[in-house]
Each structure stands twice: as structure tokens, then as C-alpha cells.
Design a protein that fits this description.
This protein is mainly α and 531 residues long. Helices cover 63% and strands 5% of the residues. The protein is globular, with a radius of gyration of 25 Å.
Length: 531
Amino acid sequence: MTKGLALARTRAVIEPDPPLPAAPNPKWITRLSIALCVEAVLLNLLQLAGTLNFGFLFGDTGANITAQYLVASGYRPAVDFGYHYGLLPLFIGHVWFSVAGASPVSYQCAMVVTGIVLALGLARFAETLHLSWTGIAFIAAALLIAIRPYYWNFAHAVEAALLCHAIAAQAGGKTPTALALTTAAALAKPSMAFFYGAWLLISAILKLQTSGALTRRALEKLIAPSIIVTAALVLLLIGIYGPLPLWRTILPLSGAHAYRVQHLGLLGDGKYFFYSPGVRPGYYVGTFTGVWTLGTIWLIGAAALCASRFVTGLRDHSPVEMTTEMVLTCGLLQLIFLLILFGTAQSWAYYSYILVMGIAASSKLSYQAGNVVVGLAFMSLLSQKATWQDSIRAWRTSSAKADVLDLWTAPDEATEWATVRKLAAGKRATILSCDGSAEVEFPEFQKPVSLFLIPGLATPGEIERKADQISSSSIVILPQFYESNFCQLPSWPEFAAPLKSFGPLWSGQYFKVLSKDDDAARNSDGSAAAP
């Protein structure tokens, strides 16, 4: 009896879709698009001091500039240096930097443009699915979750823009367009696009079969745009980068290898997004963890019930409501991400727009579902507390420095970096960092010979080149940021051997400087701690 009542209450949350309202007013659609774009830009600018900061020089974002330098120097991605993304973002990055200049500021401008493109995709999704004010309000409240102020690599940004618009196209019944966009996304980042593309094909074929319209002509119409997009992009990328780099980046083999080597995933490093020792209950309210977790549970649960309706519709040869299909699609993709593609504790943001789109769509399932979405909207607003605290702190404690490429830099960071540059001036100096762009941006250092010195990603060739560069250098700089420290590069056997001939020259909070010059080491500041 109890189980029966519980099942009845659960099913009551998701009732049959109400009839679709009349086509929305074009002026209203335009206003929604403008409103979301303005909100996306404002959110980005308000976080600027915390996103466009000194860490760019020694983190993943800076690697976007280094990748362009290496390609221009004749190195081949995924062959001469480790590269686990698709080639399409490299091409787009090349075009962008050629127009706007290769600098941290221009990269952040690209992120603003990405935010606008995503906002337009979300507005289009709301339009085509005829979302009520509940769903639209949730998108507005959760826009900080759906659209990140920056993405670690052009690959994440390009993939997000393409998949967001693909989902919006699917919601509008334009499956061929969605497939074509998904195909392009696979050449940007070979991961989620494969799963989404497979689902689009399977669901489209099942619907065609159910309606009795599964013909050769229908299949050609379904996949023709994808074939054209694939052929055009493949020819373009082969012409620029060559066939071997394309072959090595078209499948997620190197990324999967890095996941295994670095012990990433939901049961590895990723688990620290959900829990780390010492966290208090307020952590789940004032950060994105709580709303992301509850939102995921809600979406996957709603998708499971929508799956039942989807199968029933196919079995009964009746049309499947688009709301049902979109909740099922977003819930399925979120489940795939959680179980297969989740990497580090920061990777929750990779597909956060899919979670937001799925929850917004679920608001149409029933009155009760709308109430749940309203609750998640309030949670989304509360979850921004830590983000805004960090942003306010960054604005108060740092400022844009012209001599640090207009990056927001704290006074102690600027002082230490000036000291490091002074010690490196006129010497053969190199930086031993996992990634970043400092060696490209500043003339005091030798130019980079590697991209990602990260376990599972670095190739033997680039490790050897970096070891040779260290051997021929007189100064080695060791950044002490997390992004540089987690790789433990000085302990790698290939680097430990040449570093034996170096001694401590200077040490600070953010950098350690080693030198082959024994006299310089003896004359260095005695108060500085040895590395």
C-alpha cells in the first residue's frame, strides 16, 4: 500500500505535456536574447579580476597561446607535443589571435564572445521549447552556472557553443542541424559529442520507424548536413595540420589515457567536488556543489520517467512530446558525463549548460515539477555566494598591471615576478611549469618546447626537449602555484638528472629560482628559503 502511494506521488510529478502555446512573439524572443546576452557579459565583467589573473601565465588558459607558438614553430599537435583536444579549436584560436593578438586579454575577450553565443543558444532553446516563465527564470538565475566566465581551453568553449546550439536545434525539431553541429563539436573535443551524436541518430531513426517514414530519402536528409560539415572540416584541418595530427585527435584515446594515469573520474580526483575533509554544511549551500548535485539527481530522475513515456510513445506509434524528448536527452547526457567523462573536481563546469537546459525543460512536465525548478532557481542564487566573495576579494587585493600583460596581480605576486625577471635577464633562463604562456610572453626566457608537461599527456619527444633545454640553461624557474606543483616536475627522472647541477639562487612564496652559478647562489639573499 505504501509503495503504491509513493509510486502514485512520483508519477504525479510528471504528467502529460500540456498543449503547446501559440508561437511566441518575435519581439519577446529578441528581448529575451538581448537580456540573457547582457546578463552573460555583466557576469563575466564582474568576475574579471578573479578570472583574468596572474595565474594565466602558468595555467591551462595560457597554454592556448603556447599551442599557437608551437604550431607556428613547426611542431605538430598530438605528434611532436601532447594534445588531447580536437584540431578545430586550434584553427579557431589561430584565427582569433591573428585578428585580436595573442594575449591574455584577447583570450578573455574570446570567452566573452563565447558567453554571448551560449546565451543566444539558451534563448533559442527557451523559444523553441516554449518555456514558461518558470523555466526562463531558472535559466536567468542559473546563468552563472550555465555560462562560465572563462574556459580552460578553446576546445571547451567551442564545444560548449556548438553543443548548446545543437540541443536548441533538436528542441526545435531540426535534428539534421543538431547532428551537423554535434559533428563539428566532435572535431573540437572528442568526448560528449560522440554520445550525443549516437543518441540523436538512434532517437531519430526510432521515430522515423515508428511513424512509418523510415526511407532511404529520409536517412539521407538526416545525415547529409553532417557529412558535408565533416568533409569540409576534415579537408580544412588536414590541409593545415596534416593527416597524422587529425587521426590522433579525432578519437579520445590520449584523453582517456591521461584520465587513467592521473586517477581522474568520479571515484578519483573528481570526488573532491562533492566532498573534501573539513567542509561544513554551508559549503553545499554557498557553492555550486549543492545545487549541481540536487539538480543532477532531479534531472536524471525526471529523465528516467520521461524514458518510460518515450518508449510508450514509440510502442503505441504516437508522437513523442518535445519536452519529454529534451528532458530525456539532457538527463541522459548528464548521466554519461557523471559516470564516464567526469574528471577533476573542476570538471563539473564542462557541461553545466546541459544541466541548466534540462532542468529548465523539466519545468514544463507538471505544476509540481515547476515548483521543484523554482526551488532549484533559489538554490542557484544562493550557490553564488562563494563566487562573489572570491570576486570581491580579487578586486580588493589585486589590480591590472601593465608590466604583467594587464593581468590582475596582487602586489606580492608582482614584486616576486619582477625579481624573477631581473634574475633571468641576460641569462639562458627557462621555466619548468606544467603549462602556461610565460615563456612565450616574456623575452627574458627561452621559448617553449612543450605544451602540457602533465602525466599521461606529455610525449617522450617534448619531455626530452625540455630536459635538454634545462641542461643548456643557467637559470631555472620553478613556479609554486597549484597548477605547477601537482605535476611534481622536479621529481620526474628526466628532469631530476639535469636539475642536479643547479643550486638555489632565490626563493619566494610563488617562485623558486635555481642557478648553475655557485657564486650567485652563495651571494643570494640569505633570508630566502632554499627550494
